[in-house]
Design a protein that fits this description.
about 140 residues, alpha/beta, Rossmann fold, five-stranded parallel sheet
Length: about 140
């Protein structure tokens, strides 16, 4: 049995839901999992207590969460020494014509952080128009 960390950044909560589902799936396969929002890491947090790490981030206005980018950049060496995966949540991933754009966001993240995970997943996000005002929905 291995210990997995599912660390994520979320804007409106969709990435948190996906992180929870990933964590549940890993647990169902007999592994220990911890889900942590990158902003809620305990002071005693260390990557060394995990065997593998899954990092997730969403795209908002063309960028991933700064906290996720900073975490990956700061921990790149440790992440490079263990099994890792990255998942991205974006509206572009939900639209077949925009999947190339979504892949470009992933490439930018990898280039900016210098981290190259073993696996990459892209998931379509949700836009809940009823939760936004006129200026946010455009």
């Amino acid at each position: 049995m291995s210990s997995f960390l599912v660390l994520y950044g979320t804007g409106e909560g969709q990435t948190a839901k996906i992180a929870e589902r990933i964590s549940d799936t890993i647990s169902e396969r007999g592994h220990e999992t911890s889900e942590i929002d990158v902003r809620d890491r305990p002071d005693s947090f260390t990557l060394e207590e995990y065997d593998a790490v899954v990092v997730g981030a969403s795209i908002h206005v063309g960028k991933h969460q700064e906290e996720v980018r900073d975490f990956v950049t700061d921990n790149r060496d440790t992440l490079s020494e263990m099994p890792t995966a990255f998942f991205q949540v974006s509206l572009s991933s939900a639209n077949e014509e925009k999947r190339e754009e979504a892949a470009g966001y992933v490439e930018s993240f990898l280039t900016e952080t210098g981290w190259y995970p073993d696996r990459i997943g892209q998931f379509g996000g949700a836009l809940r128009f009823s939760e936004y005002g006129f200026l946010n929905a455009s």
